[in-house]
Amino acid sequence: MDFSALPDLASRAFGGGVVHFNDEFFAAADHLVLPDPPGHAPKTFDHKGQVYDGWETRRRREPGHDFAVVRLGAPGVIHGVDIDTAFFTGNYPPFAAVEAVDLPGYPGPAELDAADWIEVLPKSPLKGDGRNLYPVEDRRRFTHVRLTIFPDGGVARLRVHGEAVPDPELLPKVFDVAAAEYGATVVDCSNMFYGHPQRMLMPGLARNMGDGWETSRRRDDSNDWVLVRLAAPAVLRFADLDTSHFKGNAPGWASLTGFDADGVAYPLLTKTALRPDTPHRFAVAKAPQVTQVRLDIFPDGGMARLRLLGRADRDFLRERLGR
Fold this sequence. Notes:
It comes from Actinoplanes derwentensis. The protein is mainly beta.
């Protein structure tokens, strides 16, 4: 599986943030975790020079390196990192490394400096004005990553792709087990021509029609669907099917089917009419614990968000956490 298709655990969309750095003279380190692609306006200058949509440090005149520490918005297992130097051409760092650590609570700079960091990406070459994708083999859970650049320069985005692993002690008894921030992910779908279905699992309300799942127009008698692996096996209670922003292209109907660990199917929501540009909430049929849910839309169209509220298997969550 392409690790870049997995959620970006560092993204501001999950609540990720830059919590410690040694320098950000030309451009703020906070840009590293923005969810939107980096942009650029040539010949746009402020009092420090060209404005960049990224993190840029001053030119070093002594040996050393620069760093930025990111608190993952969704702690979890890292499968790969994307060090994106978009629009940094004569000022990108030639090398970078990434370390990670699992720290409880909300550590400050002193605790982060004293932590036992684990190297997940050794010092590796970077190309300018492009994405630098590196897989990560360490399958432990981490809460923070530290990007080190050698010796200085600019990076537009740091994306940390992986699987979210929440702490079950910090979750309510009933929560959205289809949320990407808790470890749910899309495992298959029929069509994603206009938008990847993983967007339906993101936090918050969709910002626009591009912030959801949308299929091409069907010209046959079939329908589109998406299969979601839940954050944990769960007994479901409610489903939110949100067609916000989809006005002339919302599905006419939808249904939900749950599958247990053995693949046995349970109807959760029979084919039900949907309205355009509308958040819908439905009580789902009583069923045993399920591990995956299939959303069918009829015949095609777009969905902004999918929420599945239920009572998760706490032992499963604790086992994932290693407790």
